[in-house]
Amino acid sequence: MSPRTPLIAGNWKMHKTLAEAEALIGALLPRVSTADGVDVAICPPFLALQAMVDSTRGSRVQVYAQNMHHADHGAFTGEVSPPMLDELEVRGVILGHSERRELFGESDRELALKLPAALQAGLVPILCVGETESERDAGETERKLRRQVQEDLEGVPESRLGEVVIAYEPIWAIGTGKVAAAEQAQEAIAFVRALVADRSREQAERTRVLYGGSVKPEHAAELLALPDVDGALVGGASLDAESFASIVAAAV
Length: 252
Ligand code: PGA
What we know:
Blueprint: E1 7-11, H1 18-32, E2 39-43, H2 49-56, E3 61-65, H3 82-87, E4 92-95, H4 98-104, H5 108-120, E5 124-129, H6 133-137, H7 141-152, E6 165-168, H8 182-199, H9 201-206, E7 209-212, H10 217-224, E8 231-234, H11 241-251
Parallel strand pairs: 1-2, 1-8, 2-3, 3-4, 4-5, 5-6, 6-7, 7-8
Helix pairs in contact: 1-2, 1-11, 7-8, 10-11
The structure holds 2-phosphoglycolic acid.
C-alpha cells in the first residue's frame, strides 16, 4: 500500500466566468462529498479564486491557482504573488504547465525560483513536466524529464522535496484525446520518482506524482491503479461536474 494520499486536481485553464464557476462548484460539491481517502482540488482562473475558496469552505475540495510570480511583490505588471494567493486561503498552485512553458515562455530558471517561493508561502506546488511527441519519438523522454525535474527542483531544500507534487503530462496527450498507454505512464512516473530519489530516497516515497493528459472517466481507473501513479491532473474533463466526480471516484 502506498503511503501517499491520491490527489485529483482539475485544471480549469481559462474557462469559467465567475457565474459559471459558481454553477460548476455547486454541481460538483455534492458529487464528491463522500470521496474519502482522496484529496480533491480545483484550479480556477485567478478571478474566481476568492469565490471558490468561499464556496468550498468546510468541504473536501481544495482550491489551487494555475500560476504565480516568484517574488512577494514588485514591479511585475499583470502578475500575482505567493502571499496574495496565501491570503485568499488558496491551498496550492500549478507551476510550469506546458501551456505556460510553450505559449508564455516560462523557463526552468524561473521555475527554480517559483518552487521554493510557493513552499515558503505555504502553498503546495504542482510542478508539471513532460515531453513533446517528437521528443518521445527521438527517445529523448528521459533526458527531458531529468532536465526539468533537476532544474526546477534545484532551489527546494531536500527536507521539503516530498511536499512538491509533480504532474507528468506528456504534451502530446494534453487536450488531444490521446491518453498515454498505461505502461508509458507508469514508466515515466516511476522515472520521475527515481529522479527525486536521486536527491532523497525518503522524500521520493512521500512525493505524489500525478498523470495528466486527456484523463477521462473511461480510463481513469486503469491509470490510477498503476503502482507509481498518485492521482491525476485533469483538464477538459474537470469542466463537467459529472465526469470530474467519476474520476475522483476512480481514485477512492
Ligand atoms: P486535458 O488537460 O485533460 O484536457 O488533456 C490536462 C492538463 O493540461 O493539465
